[in-house]
Write a structure and sequence with these properties.
43% of the residues lie in helices and 16% in strands. With 238 residues, the chain is α/β, with parallel strands linked by helices. β6 (154-156), α8 (162-169) and β7 form a beta-alpha-beta unit. The longest helix has 19 residues, at 218-236.
Amino acid sequence: MSRAPVDARDRLIVALDVPSGAEARALVKELGDTVSFYKVGLELFTGTDGFGMVDWLAGQDKQIFVDLKFFDVPATVARAVRQLRGRQITFATVHGNDAMMRAAAEASGEVGILAVTVLTSLDAADMQDLGFDCDIPDLVRSRAKRAVALGCAGVVASGQEAAVLRQSLGDEGLIVTPGIRPGDHDDDQKRAVTPAQALHDGADYLVVGRPIRDAASPRDAARSIQAEIASALAEARP
């Protein structure tokens, strides 16, 4: 998928990483019109009626990112992806080999398939424990190029790899960056970056959870990040 102009407000994806539908709906209502895009991950999807939550968000006129990281045999993943169609879902994630990514992309319809490169909670030592004897940027670049060539809309990758990915992908392929942490708020994300840095390096969308969800005023926290996004985009204009 080629990159297209996106409003600063719509580049912020708030992660609904909460265990219940009631908590998710409360946060969405608290944020109101400030936030237009939400991520539904494993915890929320399995802790409530996952598709019920997706349909509720669609009814609130929100964009939806379903982050379930499908990984199974290609035919099974293709059938699962087809279940996402027709529900106003913008993005969904897969995390696997070439045949599976191709099957997901071919079955996706209007849903943009994002391939996970390397989880932002992992660092070089973790990758060695998993048996990957290579640099994380090299692995991320290789997986991203294959994903886009196979028909995926883009990738999920740390902001620390955004610059090398954008250089490698050019304008083909979206980069969605989790692990966004304003200032020193990095908790368990080992490869976190700030919103401005991620955008400067080529990210298209930023996924933010705890810095908004756990803030004294989630709405103010979201607006602050959106202002940083707008400022970074303005500085990048020729």
